[in-house]
Design a protein that fits this description.
It contains 18 helices and no strands. 84% of the residues lie in helices and 0% in strands.
Length: 523
């Protein structure tokens, strides 16, 4: 597969998987060092942190990616630079407002709603993260728009490495949950330094080359007027407002269950749920990787008015997210208990097994939504995913308050899953209709059957860590064999396997042999 969807998403996928594993290492270490109750408090802090970062960014990184991609496709260096300057100014103002707001709201949230005074300081410390998260967010938007996916990975990897190191050291020094939060701030600070360095050394040079190919407009040789900048800011905000609303709704969908559990139940149960929830969201690594590449690709195809190319990008995105996510979700459902036991050694966290199995089904649906939403944003139609996500979040909120008092943390997981199904069906149908694309039902049916066969084979396996590792080893062979048997493996899939093997270093030969084993059976 030679499209930008494949090239961009492959790099993001490989790095994001490693990034997510690092995230689990962070959570696992914090769970061990803080215990279920302390980890529960951290679990109540992280959603507020994510909301603050989103509020400070104002939904502008996707807008930056869209318009940078749009103007770079037209070789308009001046507008690429101006989009970056204007969006950064907006984000600085928003970051100041967001920091002040979370600092003063920390006490009412921690004491008034959650009834947990120990959460006040961690919530207030979140305000340290905002200025640096804003700069990093803007840079990643530029990198995405310029198809520099590797640079996104470098900044995210730097952020995570220093977050884990800083948090562990500070918690061991006795800072408790506050240390985990300050560790995140350290990660963003270092990531900001690295991102600025990359931007100056690499990205700016590529932007400067656009002038050699594009035609300069009269105003490009002079500084922009304030009226022109307001016009650019207006376009960015019109695009970003639905994105930020959708972003808030998405975070709410993830975390409504956490806060409702925190309202009705003890901190330990929040900890159990927060052991299950991030594991269930592992498939989102794949969908977000593909979505990261799909947004600028769809934007470019739309700008060029190439409907055939646009439909090709869309169908590739859906096929590959299903091809990779469905078996991963099935495997997570079957091996839920040993997965939790591996990442969270304290046996008490096994209370989250049922929630993980339910959430895995919900996140499978949500991965499809993520790709659909990114395509809509690339087409300049962010209102569609925003509306569906807001409605889904309302459904999640209502059902959580009904189900959590009756079914506990499993009730929160079930409410989220029902909402995710609604969101997926709504946005997928509208996106296909809007782009006049049709999913090849035969291909998707074969993927579903192959995934079910793999899951059935694993059901009799003892649910231990040993058999979990055995399942991880056997899963690719069983899944690809079943897919090949039903004619669902394509030549381009094998080509991707070969390309993947080239990136695997010492394992290159193993992956190439694996791909060669199935190459002659591909259609």
């Amino acid at each position: 597969m030679s499209s930008k969807i494949a090239k961009g998403s492959f790099v993001i996928l490989l790095g994001s998987f490693i990034f997510r594993i690092g995230g689990y290492i962070y959570r696992s270490l914090m769970a061990i060092l803080l215990g279920p109750a302390g980890y529960g408090i951290l679990g109540l802090t992280l959603p507020a942190q994510n909301v603050l970062i989103l509020l400070a960014a104002g939904g502008l990184p996707p807008a930056i990616a869209k318009y940078v991609s749009h103007y770079s496709a037209r070789d308009d260096e001046f507008m690429v630079r101006q989009v970056i300057k204007t969006s950064t100014k907006i984000m600085v103002v928003l970051s100041i407002v967001a920091s002040i707001m979370i600092f003063f709201l920390a006490k009412p949230i921690a004491i008034g709603f959650l009834h947990k005074p120990e959460a006040v300081l961690p919530l207030q410390l979140i305000s340290l993260i905002t200025p640096f998260s804003v700069i990093v967010g803007a840079l990643r938007g530029v990198f995405q728009g310029m198809y520099e996916m590797t640079n996104i990975l470098i900044t995210r990897a730097t952020e995570q490495i220093f977050t884990i190191a800083g948090a562990v050291v500070l918690v061991l020094l006795g800072w408790y949950v506050a240390g985990a939060v300050v560790g995140t701030a350290i990660g963003f600070i270092v990531s900001t330094v690295v991102g600025v360095y990359i931007f100056k050394r690499i990205t700016l040079k590529r932007i400067s080359k656009l002038r050699k190919h594009g035609s300069l407009k009269p105003h490009q040789n002079t500084s922009i007027t304030w009226r022109e900048e307001i016009s650019i800011a207006k376009r960015l905000l019109i695009f970003s407002i639905p994105v930020v609303i959708a972003g808030f709704a998405e975070l709410a969908l993830y975390d409504i269950g956490t806060y409702v559990i925190g309202h009705f139940m003890a901190s330990e149960y929040v900890g159990y749920y927060n052991a299950a929830s991030p594991i269930a969201r592992l498939p989102l690594v794949i969908s977000m990787s593909i979505a990261t590449a799909a947004l600028p690709a769809a934007s470019e195809a739309f700008s060029l008015n190439d409907k055939h190319l646009l439909r090709t990008y869309i169908l590739q995105s859906y096929r590959y997210v299903t091809l990779l996510v469905l078996p991963l979700s099935v495997g997570t459902i079957v091996f839920a208990a040993p997965i939790i036991g591996l990442l969270f050694p304290n046996p008490a966290f096994l209370n989250g097994t049922g929630a993980l199995q339910i959430l895995s089904a919900g996140m499978l649906c949500f991965t499809v939504y993520v790709v659909s939403a990114s395509i809509c944003q690339g087409l300049g139609k962010p209102n569609l995913p925003m509306t569906a996500l807001v409605l889904g979040t309302i459904i999640d909120l209502v059902l959580s308050f009904i189900m959590v008092p009756v079914y506990g943390i499993n009730g929160a997981a079930l409410a989220t899953t029902i909402a995710a199904v609604f969101i997926m069906v709504t946005v997928l149908g509208k996106t296909l209709k809007m782009t006049d694309a049709q999913l090849p039902k035969g291909d998707f049916t074969k993927i579903i059957i192959a995934s079910i066969i793999m899951g059935i084979i694993f059901i009799p396996f003892p649910k231990t860590r040993l058999f979990l590792f055995l399942g991880i080893i056997l899963a690719p062979f069983i899944y690809v064999s079943a897919l090949t048997l039903f004619g669902g493996l394509k030549k381009e899939d094998v080509h991707v396997m070969y390309k993947f093997g080239e990136k695997m270093g010492p394992l290159r030969g193993v992956v190439r042999k694996f791909a060669g084993l199935f190459e002659r059976f591909a259609t």
